[in-house]
Amino acid sequence: MSRKEESNPITLGIPVYEGVDLLDVTGPFEMFSWAAQSTGLRPLILSEDGGPVVSGNHVRFHAQASFAEKPDLDVLWVPGGLPDALKTIMCDPNSRYLAYLRQIAEKAKWVCSVCEGALLLARAGLLNGHCATTHWAFAGCLEKFTEVKVVSGHPRFVVSGNRLTGGGISSGLDESLELLRLLYGKKVTLSVQKTTQYFPRPPVHGRIPREVPDCMIDWQNCG
Hints:
The protein has helices at 3-7, 22-39, 83-90, 96-105, 117-123, 139-143, 171-184, 186-195, and strands spanning 11-15, 42-47, 53-54, 60-61, 65-66, 75-78, 110-113, 131-132, 149-150, 157-160, 163-166. The protein is an alpha/beta fold and 223 residues long. It has one domain: Class I glutamine amidotransferase (GATase) domain (Rossmann fold, 3-Layer(aba) Sandwich). A hairpin with a 2-residue loop joins β10 and β11.
């Protein structure tokens, strides 16, 4: 670790909520944690009140701090979640979650999302004027935000200014490596890839449908 990294550690926060996608949180957190051993990166899982949350697949896990305890972050990483969980946040005009995203984004070096987390960033107005991607099944939802340019072809991740958005769920692993490359360079990133043995060769090779479904989150008609 360099003296600069020791004196200027980077704090990365993952704000979670009820119904969050587990892999959107834990996969990238694993990557960031391995990088932390050599860089001074400080990854944290945050919840509104600092208490535990239950993921969309019913896994209960603990946060490490509340939003109030971390009013500033260097990197914001927003995970996706169940459609009903997203709608609850997006339909709330006084959402503390969206308010926290806006608060952090004002000073953050990087504002990131994976999977449907892009919808939360878009709802908070934080992707306006940027190119972005999301889970292929929710691309139609992201397209409803007319000030966001949805990149065609369903890339694993997209960099646009200081915005980094990822595709669906497992894309968060590729995206987290890209963030580490942007923050610390190739050497650190290759070390994390090697340590986690992330050399994917899946036993099946499906295809993303040509036609994505209509948006299944009707936040424009909340009631």
